[in-house]
Structure prediction request, 153 residues.
Amino acid sequence: MTAALLKAVHVLAVLLWVGGMAFAHFFLRPSLTVLEPPQRLKLMHAVLGRFFRAVLWATGAILLTGFAMLRGVGRAAVLAPAAWPWSWWCMTTVGLLMVAIFGHIRFVRWPVMDRAVRAGNLPAAAAALAGIRQWVAVNLGLGIALILVVFVG
Prediction:
């Protein structure tokens, strides 16, 4: 039961994160062209603020459940990663890279956009949003590739 609960929380957190990135990148952002730039930036600011708070929780859940599941297979397995299946290596390595990229987005890029929007500096806010979008696209690509590797191959 515990293993199933850990896996369920892990997968749901991944779905929130990767699904949220896909929604924002492919559906929300292109649809915002019906708004004027100031409204676009304010809406994206509000959406990203909420999304990034949720992803902070999701990444914490992903890391905790992932390492708990590794520990659940035995202390020897955790201490002997050379014996891990390659999919575990892939999940751990790419997952940690994705968390690091999210950390960069949330703690480096986001504060710049947040300050710019609050100050009414639209050009700076737009530039910061463009940088966030690029890093989100990288993380989305990594997330989709990781899901394909883990579940398909």
The mean pLDDT is 93.
